[in-house]
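Pasting as-is:
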Amino acid sequence: MSVTIHCPKCSSGLKLPSRKLLGRKGKCPKCQHRFVLKEPEEVELELAEPESPATPQTPQVGTSAKWVPDEPAAPVFSLANDGPVPKSKPGKFPVNEPPAADSSFNFADVATAASAISTESSDAASESVTSRIRNRRKKRRTGPIAVGVGTALLAFCLLGLWWQQNSQTADDAAASKQPPQVNVQLEQETQQLAAENEDAKSISPTHGEPVTVQYMPFTPHLVFHIRPADVWSNNRSMKEFIAALGDPGFGRWLHDSILNLTKFEPTEIEELTIGINFGARTATPDVAAVVRLTAEQSEVELQRDRFAARRRPDPTVKMFQTNEFNYLLVDNKTFVVAPAALTDELTEALTFSYRPSLQLESLLKESDRQRQATLLFDVANIDTHREYIFNQDLQTLADQFVLWFGNDVQTVSWSFHLSPEHLYMETLLRHANDSSPRKVKRYISGQLEDLPQTLAAAVRFMKPPTIGYREMIGRFPAMMKATALGTRSFVGSDHVRLLTFLPRKAAPNLAAASLFTWNQSLVTDFDGPAPLASSGKKLPDKIIDRLQMPVYIDFRGTPLQEALAYIGEEIQTPFDINGDGLKQVALTQNMRQTHNLGEVPAMAALHAIVSNPDYRNAMVLSIDEAAKKIIVTSRPAAEAASLPILDTAPK
């Protein structure tokens, strides 16, 4: 049978599983006090229900019940008569006995108070033990509850995270299954531009392999590829073109430069690829060339008759050396020429080729080595080294050249091919990293449109010495206007393609005008006052006479309003287009004009426009001499306004 023993020090209860353990020593689990386990004593107590005592001013002392003996340890004497106080019954105290009249202490009250204090102490002790046991039981109950609640919350949070992750995964899977949204209009426009660019490539007069920079002993920053045997051939068109370049002039300078570099006449060279490496900003650029001859040459002929050089002792390479250049023989028709300081690099060029920049290489892939001349360069390199490429007289033009391309264009490829029928020019523009092909197209279109006005403003400062020079230079802006009108632009994947078709005889005219204007620009003071430009001819007073002035016509899909504006600039007479009148006969100002007439009177150009069979003789011209303008309208509108209709037919 179990029994509960209370610690005599802290009154904590210790439950023994059997009474057999009584008499042994035990240790309180709370205060660690060691004591002999004894049978608990039973104390008979009387519980009183006293009136609610007032709250004591000071805290009551005592934590456990105390045992009160049945009899006092010594007789108690009364202070009144010095006689002994009669004994009380065991376990009883006299209550409510009236005190003696002359006694200063009432022993009965003292005994009653002692009994009350003893009872209250016992109740406090019992309540203290009971509350502790209740608190322990409460803790034992609330502990598992708190753990359970926490576990449930944790499980709920994990469940929520799992659900959120699965939902996100499901949404991602659904989104991946759905096709991405595509801007249909932009996609169609891109495909259309790509198709137009491929069509533009197909109309090229040549279809050769791309220009290569194989065997170059350095990284080329500028590449010039030319077919000298074709350019200096006996073809009449090319002879006229070379003659227009001047002798002496640019044509002679180019001829002599090729001869000095290669030791061969241009007519003996099938292909010539010249590379320039600008190197350090203050250093002289290095020039090398890969020469492909029209006929094979023996080593002896090359060493003795051409190069006048000594053979390099190294038997692994066929190299001829001079104090100025080294010549590396690739085969009997191909050799490489480079400065003498690049001997080691030239030796390695047989097995290792330096590659150009990525931007320049992308344009090289679009080039055609069958074209008669191709020039590729990096605008940034030209800008950085222009002070050391161009002499002091050309600094202003070099700055204008670089600024004209702007910040959107990084690399340029320009090619030229003159056939017996047409002059074909192709310009490829590679955009900078922070630009795009479409942005370059918009920018260059604006630059080409403004180019004639820019040239006209520059020409005003020039003072050519002869009338022929003045006429040719004065017509140069008009020629560039015709060139701009004959140029079409296309957008490729990483470049803009500009194609220019002009009649064959435009080549020598452009060459001569460009050369004369260039030479005159070198001796012109552009900072001084602009002189009055005069060609020696007076502008006719009547418009009918101005219509006999020559104009250069090469319209290729040019809108009507632009074509008339160009003719008006040439004869210094504006055109007034009656848009409402044209609408009466289903005509517009944007009708495309395609006329390749060359240099003809302005009247002939206007006749070619208004006599178009698609217009059904519905568009007419009328001269307003008072307002000094030409009115373009429909026949019904002119007849309604009683306007005189101009007869453009040749007389």
